[in-house]
Design a protein that fits this description.
With 275 residues, the chain is α/β, with parallel strands linked by helices. Helix content is 41%, strand content 15%. Helix 7 packs antiparallel against helix 8.
């Protein structure tokens, strides 16, 4: 009985050691791919995945050390997806490129996809126990417009309003700019007259200004080749925040439309800007 117990203990120890070695032989890294709309993020991610999936047969990747050293075993799409995020539409993107002769759909929200790369480890003590290794690469496709909002963390609402008003001056001839000015002027007059006090973010005049500002940003984005910071970038790529009150604000130029400090719209705009 004692011999059987020792034999089982050794067997269990070896099995557990093997499990830990296998676990240690697997690694996971995350790679973020971002850029402004039209920069080719989705096309790049689709191409990268295709190159890795076909590295054994079609793709030629001379810059990959594993392939040059004949240690590459292959790649596949992983089933270990993070359910909290939308999956990158790889198959749809390939279909667009190959069958429809069109570019992949643009990035509108964060999406992820995981690749499992299998290879032979370089010769070492540990490689003798478990020569086959797995590297999981999680590719994250991320709208670059969101990055333009990072500087907002260092600004208060009225500092941002003054800055964005200056940045958008070259685009005041846009029809959408004229609509925005008309709507904010109407709201300002209503506030000054006291008819719409206290102002609510659900009031028609307030929401009309919100939509007018978003339309102006989209018009600039779609109709100019100049590089211009359009903030908030979330207005252009709202992602999961689309149609939520969190994006219901706009810049207010106090020089053009002076307000009393006690006006109810000020804390409303400040609060939405900060959140």
């Amino acid at each position: 009985m004692k011999g059987i117990f020792i034999k089982k203990s050794i067997s269990n120890l070896l099995n557990e050691t093997q499990k830990q070695l296998k676990k240690a032989s697997s690694q996971r890294i995350q790679i973020g791919v971002t850029g402004l709309s039209g920069s080719g993020k989705s096309t790049f991610v689709t191409s990268l995945i295709t190159q890795l999936l076909t590295a054994n047969s079609v793709a030629k990747l001379p810059f990959v050390e594993l392939i040059n050293e004949n240690r590459w075993l292959g790649a596949k799409l992983s089933n270990h997806e993070n359910g909290e995020y939308m999956r990158f539409p790889y198959e749809e993107s390939v279909h667009n490129l190959q069958q429809l002769d069109s570019w992949p759909n643009p990035t509108t929200r964060e999406s992820r996809i995981v690749l499992e790369l299998t290879y032979i480890a370089k010769s070492s003590i540990w490689s003798k126990f478990w020569p086959e290794r797995t590297l999981e690469i999680e590719l994250i496709d991320y709208p670059g417009e969101w990055l333009s909002d990072i500087p907002l963390l260092d600004l208060d609402y009225f500092a941002w309003s003054a800055e964005i008003s200056t940045n958008l001056k070259p685009f005041r001839d846009f029809d959408e700019a004229k609509v925005f000015k008309k709507k904010i002027l109407s709201l300002h007059k209503a506030i000054q007259s006291g008819k719409d006090e206290p102002v609510s973010e659900n009031s028609i005049k307030y929401l009309q200004v919100v939509e007018a500002y978003k339309s102006w940003l989209r018009a600039i984005h779609d109709n100019t080749n100049q590089y211009v910071i359009l903030q908030p970038g979330r207005f252009l790529s709202p992602g999961h925040l689309e149609n939520t009150p969190l994006l219901n604000f706009f810049p207010w130029d106090l020089n053009q439309f002076p307000l009393n400090e006690e006006c109810s719209i000020i804390p409303l705009l400040k609060n939405r800007f900060r959140t």
